[in-house]
Amino acid sequence: MDQRINKLTELVKGKYDNGDPGHDFAHIMRVIGTCKSIGSKVGANLEVLIPAAMLHDVVNLPKDHPERKQASQKAAEEAKNILRNLEYSNEEVNRIETVIIEHSYSLGKKPSCIESAVLQDADRLDALGAIGKRDGKVA
After folding, report:
1. How many angstroms separate the CA atoms of 36 and 11, rounded?
2. Residue 133: which residues within 8 A CB-CB, separation 6 or more?
3. For range 5-13, the mean pLDDT
4. Nearest residue to 113 (alpha-carbon basis) of 100, 130, 126
5. In the chain, fewer beta carbons within 10 Å around the N or the C end?
6. pLDDT level of residue 136 (50, 70, 90 thresholds)
């Protein structure tokens, strides 16, 4: 998993230089840290959860944008394009797409799997400013 995540990180890091501190790469890394922490405790599939966390805001629309409710769908579509070029299977891509769509607060959809629920919680915790520390590092 680490090799694919490293490639994914290199590929998408620049996409988060968008001037929005609530959806920048630091946000992504905090959400990933929280997903790892929660996900490992509840038996989530980290092979699906971590790429979903990495890509959940790859398309970010302002809160007042008329298509704001479609932001997670647009992010999922962009994620599919990215993941297909990085050795992810169709099954993995489909599961990651579902997790990205279902994590959305704006969409108001109930998660259908543990990975969606974990990403939804991790993203909301970060939005609330709930930043924890482990081993002296920001989670």
Report:
1. 21
2. 139
3. 93
4. 100
5. N
6. very low
Structure token digits, residue 5: 């995540």
DSSP letter at 111 equals: P
Encoding tokens for residue 118? 């974990």
Contacts of 95 (CB under 8 A, 6+ apart): 45, 48, 113, 115
AA identity, residue 51: P
**Residues listed for the chain:** 139
Nearest alpha-carbon partner for 118 in 35, 32, 31:
35
Q: Which domains, from first to last, does the chain contain? A: 2-130 (1.10.3210.10)
- For the record, the structure tokens of 139 come out as 């989670």
Mean pLDDT of the chain: 86
- The tokens for 35 are 């997903």
Q: What is the pLDDT of residue 15?
A: 86
- Report pTM: 0.86
SS3 133: strand
